[in-house]
């Protein structure tokens, strides 16, 4: 299959796996479910104790679950996962036919295998009139004659649970030892007979269980048999990752083997979660569904933390490199034109009435502001860090017939200090991190001649809430008041310091209002 790395590969498409996939897909995670099509409850006609879906056939629930996850964008791959291995920051899952799936995280919900006692006829009737869980099948066997096949001390508790379902319960020792005096007294007090003798086979008439035939020929008439299987987790994929199934005890009796995990389903292998019967041997369908959702939530949070770490690293790298000459050269080379070619509106508004003199255009870009100023009689020094931008600006100036009124200078004003004595210093949308910004605007203020004007325009911090679509660097946005505070109080007159609104559209074409931070200050 074509390589694609999913956020999560879910191994096992039963109740736990589909529940986890649903929660992840609804969180807009890319999800692949690998399913061998072997649900543990396939022999059962109905499921129970699932609120609102009691009595639903298992296959119907799984089909509906598949349709739901596919509707949310998850994918389902039919096949048996044989092994998994670490692959960089994620995992590589190999199927039995050689196909490979890749995921950043794994949710393994492969379930368990019920290892039944070796009694002829038992397996064939499993899930019908051979049961083990009173919560799953008890109501349907109510008031029936029920024989509980003993397999250890836990069978006493099991018999008492079924006694809650029916008054006609007995225990079949199946050749095992009799219980101790205390348990025998409990059984006697509940009216539960104990039948010695080994079981030879189940006895049926047509398609109905009628009894249990003991060695020697005696038949114990029952309508149903309760067999306590040994539960063995389908743990092959997990074992390939170094996880070993461990014994699970209840009331001192080993019920089987499972993969241990914490409350969220996280295993000791980072990036691998388990849910359902592979870790909880006693989980019913409802419990498995809950386990899948719990694990999915933990996986999503783990991925969010991973995504955030990567984003922070990229964010820091972007800040560290975005103001370099190489970065700006690459940006300008990437497109024939970056800007609109029109002068900035605030410049037009604020400078249109001023007497022309000398002007410093800071970060002139492709020259639209410098050309506009020169056309109105200003002698302009246009400075930019990009030689590509300066070349375009010079071309525009020549085409407009004002090339002789503009001096283009290649400089990084974070390092190179501008000359002093300008009648106008204009800085349009020069955004830097806080400390470099303070240093730059302090130097620019010193470049203004007495009686001259400092014009600073920038994106206002309130724009971040408009989803206008520009790069999200909160520390680089500023208010006019923040720049005004950098000016000496006794040498400047603040003409304008405001958040000036203007209409715009967001990336989806909706009309919004954004604000420019506008500072107009005169040096006195």
UniProtKB/TrEMBL annotation:
Oxidoreductase among keywords: yes
Claim: Repeat is one of the keywords in the record: no
Pfam families linked to this entry: Methyltransf_25, Pyr_redox_2
UniProt KW keywords: Flavoprotein, Oxidoreductase
Annotated Methyltransferase domain residues: 360-452
InterPro entries (UniProt xref): FAD/NAD-bd_sf, FAD/NAD-binding_dom, Ferredoxin-NADP_redctase_2, Methyltransf_25, SAM-dependent_MTases_sf
All residue ranges annotated as the FAD/NAD(P)-binding domain in the record: 6-292
Catalytic activity: [thioredoxin]-dithiol + NADP(+) = [thioredoxin]-disulfide + NADPH + H(+)
Gene3D superfamilies registered for this protein in UniProt: FAD/NAD(P)-binding domain, Vaccinia Virus protein VP39
Protein name per Swiss-Prot or TrEMBL: FAD-dependent oxidoreductase
């Amino acid at each position: 299959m074509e390589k694609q790395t999913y956020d999560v590969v879910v191994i096992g498409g039963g109740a736990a796996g589909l529940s986890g996939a649903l929660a992840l897909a609804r969180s807009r995670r890319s999800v692949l479910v690998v399913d061998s099509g072997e649900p543990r409850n396939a022999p059962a006609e109905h499921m129970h104790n699932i609120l609102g879906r009691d009595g639903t056939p298992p296959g119907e629930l799984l089909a509906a679950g598949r349709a739901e996850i596919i509707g949310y964008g998850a994918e389902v791959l039919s096949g048996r996962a044989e092994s998994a291995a670490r692959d960089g920051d994620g995992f590589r899952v190999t199927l039995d036919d050689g196909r490979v799936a890749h995921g950043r995280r794994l949710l393994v919900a492969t379930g368990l295998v019920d290892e039944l006692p070796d009694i002829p006829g038992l397996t064939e009737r499993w899930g019908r009139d051979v049961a083990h869980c009173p919560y799953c099948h008890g109501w349907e066997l109510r008031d029936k004659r029920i024989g509980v096949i003993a397999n250890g001390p836990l069978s006493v508790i099991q018999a008492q649970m079924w006694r809650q379902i029916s008054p006609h319960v007995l225990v079949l020792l199946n050749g095992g030892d009799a219980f101790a005096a205390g348990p025998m007294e409990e059984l006697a007090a509940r009216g539960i007979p104990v039948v010695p003798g080994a079981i030879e086979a189940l006895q049926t008439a047509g398609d109905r269980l009628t009894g249990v035939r003991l060695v020697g020929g005696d038949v114990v008439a029952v309508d149903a048999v309760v067999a306590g299987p040994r539960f063995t987790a389908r743990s092959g994929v997990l074992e390939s990752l170094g996880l070993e199934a461990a014994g699970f005890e209840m009331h001192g009796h080993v019920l089987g083997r499972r993969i241990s995990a914490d409350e969220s389903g996280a295993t000791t292998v980072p990036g691998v979660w388990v849910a359902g019967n592979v870790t909880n041997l006693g989980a019913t369908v409802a419990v498995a569904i809950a386990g899948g959702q719990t694990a999915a939530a933990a996986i999503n949070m783990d991925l969010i933390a991973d995504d955030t770490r990567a984003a922070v690293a990229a964010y820091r790298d972007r800040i560290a490199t975005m103001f370099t000459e190489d970065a700006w050269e690459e940006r300008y080379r990437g497109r024939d034109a970056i800007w609109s070619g029109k002068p900035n509106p605030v410049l037009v508004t604020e400078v249109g009435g001023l007497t022309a003199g000398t002007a410093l255009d800071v970060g002139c870009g492709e020259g639209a502001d410098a050309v506009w100023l020169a056309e109105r009689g200003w002698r302009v020094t246009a400075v930019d860090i990009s030689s590509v931008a300066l070349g375009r600006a010079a071309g525009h100036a020549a085409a407009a017939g004002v090339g002789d009124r503009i001096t283009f200078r290649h400089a990084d004003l974070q390092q190179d200090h501008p000359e002093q004595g300008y009648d106008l210093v204009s800085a349009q949308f020069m955004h830097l991190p806080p400390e470099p910004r303070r240093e730059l605007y302090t130097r620019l203020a010193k470049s203004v001649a007495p009686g001259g004007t400092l014009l600073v325009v920038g994106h206002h911090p309130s724009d971040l809430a408009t989803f206008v679509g520009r790069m999200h660097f909160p520390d680089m946005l500023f208010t006019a008041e923040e720049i005004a505070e950098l000016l000496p109080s006794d040498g400047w007159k603040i003409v304008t310091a405001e958040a000036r609104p203007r209409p715009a559209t967001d990336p989806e074409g909706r009309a919004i209002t954004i604000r420019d931070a506008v500072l107009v200050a005169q040096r006195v």
